[in-house]
């Protein structure tokens, strides 16, 4: 199923999260990697990663961190690109433009 659990000594299971990048937001299961892939296919995007962020009200929203391939691009253009290819609930609520994605020493995204 992709769910990670742990057996407790009392025989119950503790839910630990997911083994993949799938998140559930407002009842929709969303594979974050699908959004990353579609964003990277846009000619103005060099790299991208989408994460599910919790705000102060404990609501969850998608945020896209984007490295541009050239000059600035209007985030509305990226939203339009995503809406052409993905369901509405896959479209991030916010975009953050970065000069590069932060990486851990092993090369994975931090």
Blueprint (SSEs and pairs):
Elements: E1 3-7, E2 13-18, E3 22-25, E4 28-31, H1 32-40, E5 45-54, E6 60-68, H2 75-85, E7 94-97
Parallel strand pairs: 6-7
Antiparallel strand pairs: 1-2, 3-4, 5-6
Short description:
The chain has 110 residues and is an alpha+beta fold. It has two helices and seven strands.
Notable traits:
alpha+beta; three-stranded mixed beta sheet; two-stranded antiparallel ribbon; 2 helices; 18% helix; globular
Overview of this protein structure:
With 110 residues, the protein is of the alpha+beta class. The protein is built from two helices and seven strands, in the order ββββαββαβ. It has helices at 32-40, 75-85; strands spanning 3-7, 13-18, 22-25, 28-31, 45-54, 60-68, 94-97. The protein has a three-stranded mixed beta sheet, with helices on one face. It has a two-stranded antiparallel sheet with strand order 1-2. Strands 3-4 form a two-stranded antiparallel ribbon. It is globular and about 60 Å long. The chain starts with a strand and ends in a 13-residue tail after the last strand. The model has no long low-confidence stretch (mean pLDDT 88).
